[in-house]
């Protein structure tokens, strides 16, 4: 292959720029031309495609978001949209495509591969919800953003003797809430994978009050329900003064952590290697600190699950 393309798609995640940089530099290192497709699959359909060079990815490794921009494209979900995308790739002479994004974006990459166009997926999402990799690009940064915010909330929670319910991102996956809970010593976490736990949260809160605890932090993943509803229920059942903080989109932004930059660099470079080896329809990942790759179709059949041992530990440590 002499010419490859790269795009970012779906929800942005800190570290996507480091992955773009790795793809571009790795291509140039191997004497392969590399084209950037702006605005994800929508930009692909529209032919929003530009040649990249060493300088196009200078000074972006430390920046959040994605310099190639991202978009959601309904048109690309149709056969016609995918056909238009392939036409554009062929027009530019691009022989293989690297897609940095979440599982939705991988479905797009799978469709292109099925139609004979080689794609490799790089997992970029703060949710850490993609099977076949221990970590996705952006998770570590989002987690650290949450920790910083909760540390601040904790100060005011202690001063005022309050229970704080903090809503974090995670529609289907509780990883951010679970890891944040452990890292921040939260009293309880509520995550989509364990829907029935409110009773336990309440009895734990009551026990805490009995032994003189001044404050509590409850972390709720957005997918399990609204933090405001939980706050009301907790107030009703315990008479504790509760407050809600919804962290929202601050979790998506910011300069990527060292871990995310290194992960993104490794995964981006690996994706290029796979295409140059003639592989297609694969997703790159990291497992036990080793780079791996899996069949995208197989990955999309699996559902993400949380680490049960960590979940149990979070309970044991917050007694
Ligand atoms: P993420 O990649 O973060 O999960 P989305 O689920 O929004 O984000 O997917 C991003 C884009 O990927 C969609 O806007 C669409 O263009 C494309 N996509 C998603 N699902 C499919 C599908 N089944 N077939 C083709 N393209 C898809």
UniProtKB/TrEMBL annotation:
The reaction(s) this protein catalyses: beta-D-fructose 6-phosphate + ATP = beta-D-fructose 1,6-bisphosphate + ADP + H(+)
Residues engaged in binding ADP: 21-25, 154, 185-187, 211, 213-215
Binding site for Mg(2+): 103
Keywords (A to Z) from UniProt: Allosteric enzyme, ATP-binding, Cytoplasm, Glycolysis, Kinase, Magnesium, Metal-binding, Nucleotide-binding, Transferase
Principal location: cytoplasm
Regulation of its function: Allosterically activated by ADP and other diphosphonucleosides, and allosterically inhibited by phosphoenolpyruvate.
Binding positions for substrate per the UniProt entry: 125-127, 162, 169-171, 222, 243, 249-252
Quaternary context: Homotetramer.
Protein family membership: Belongs to the phosphofructokinase type A (PFKA) family. ATP-dependent PFK group I subfamily. Prokaryotic clade 'B1' sub-subfamily.
Protein name per UniProt: ATP-dependent 6-phosphofructokinase
Lineage: Bacteria, Bacillati, Bacillota, Bacilli, Bacillales
């Amino acid at each position: 292959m002499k010419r490859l393309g790269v795009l970012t798609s779906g929800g942005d995640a800190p570290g996507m720029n480091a992955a773009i940089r790795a793809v571009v530099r790795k291509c140039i290192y191997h004497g392969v031309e590399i084209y950037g497709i702006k605005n994800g699959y929508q930009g692909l359909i529209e032919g929003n495609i530009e040649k990249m060079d060493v300088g196009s990815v200078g000074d972006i490794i430390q920046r959040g978001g994605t310099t190639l921009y991202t978009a959601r494209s309904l048109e690309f979900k149709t056969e016609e949209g995918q056909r238009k995308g392939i036409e554009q790739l062929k027009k530019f002479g691009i022989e293989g495509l690297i897609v940095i994004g979440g599982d939705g974006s991988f479905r797009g990459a799978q469709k292109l591969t099925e139609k004979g166009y080689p794609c490799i997926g790089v997992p970029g999402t703060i949710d850490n919800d993609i099977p076949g990799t221990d970590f996705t690009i952006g998770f570590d940064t989002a987690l650290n953003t949450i920790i910083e915010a909760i540390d601040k909330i904790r100060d005011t929670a202690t001063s005022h003797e309050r229970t704080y319910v903090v809503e974090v991102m995670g529609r289907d996956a509780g990883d951010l809430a679970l890891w944040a809970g452990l890292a921040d010593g939260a009293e309880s976490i509520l995550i989509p994978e364990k829907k029935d736990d409110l009773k336990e949260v309440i009895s734990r809160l009551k026990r805490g009050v009995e032994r003189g605890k001044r404050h509590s932090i409850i972390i709720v993943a957005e997918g399990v329900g609204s933090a405001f509803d939980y706050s009301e229920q907790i107030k009703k059942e315990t008479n504790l003064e509760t407050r809600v903080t919804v962290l929202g989109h601050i979790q998506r932004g910011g300069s990527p952590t060292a871990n995310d930059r290194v992960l993104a660099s490794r995964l981006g470079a690996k994706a290029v290697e796979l295409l140059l080896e003639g592989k297609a329809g694969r997703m790159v990942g990291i497992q036990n600190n080793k780079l791996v790759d899996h069949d995208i179709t197989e990955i999309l059949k699996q559902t993400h699950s949380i680490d049960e041992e960590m979940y149990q530990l979070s309970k044991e440590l917050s007694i």
